[in-house]
Amino acid sequence: MGDPTRAKEASEEPSPRPGFRVRIDYTEPEFHRRNPRCPEAYTAWFDCAGARDAHEAVDMALGEFDFYARCSRVAWHRVVRAITVE
């Protein structure tokens, strides 16, 4: 299970449920090329309360990340730069 003191240091809000919290840092290169004033990178947080270990939490978070990317109705790719598990 994630360390609650570390969760408070890494984000403004601690995870609201027990389990793991996964942060995915990513870029959207084509969007950034078209909109140079937009942020160069983005962060998405996923609470994975049902995960039994960090690997399962990452699998769950990447599954949700992929789902939202596919449903976003844009054709450009998102490039994952880093994954952090708390």
Question: Beta-strand percentage?
Answer: 25-35%
Poorly predicted regions: 1-11
Structural class: alpha+beta
Q: Average pLDDT, to the nearest integer?
A: 84
DSSP summary: helix tally:
3
Principal-axes shape call:
elongated
Radius of gyration: 14 Å
Give me the strand/helix succession.
Answer: HEHEHE
Strand order of the largest sheet: 2-1-3
Largest sheet: 3 strands, antiparallel
Question: How much helix is in the residues?
Answer: 25-40%
Distance between the termini: 8 Å
Number of strands: 3
Oligomer: single chain
Descriptors:
35% helix; alpha+beta; three-stranded antiparallel β-sheet; 86 residues; single chain; 3 helices
Q: What would you say this structure looks like, in words?
A:
The protein has 86 residues and is α+β, with helices and mostly antiparallel strands. The chain has a 3-stranded antiparallel β-sheet, covered by helices on one side. The radius of gyration is 14 Å and the shape is elongated.
Question: Could you give a short description of this structure?
Answer:
The protein is of the alpha+beta class. It has helices at residues 4-10, 29-34, 54-70; strands at 20-27, 42-48, 79-85.
Layout of helices and strands:
Blueprint: H1 4-10, E1 20-27, H2 29-34, E2 42-48, H3 54-70, E3 79-85
Antiparallel strand pairs: 1-2, 1-3
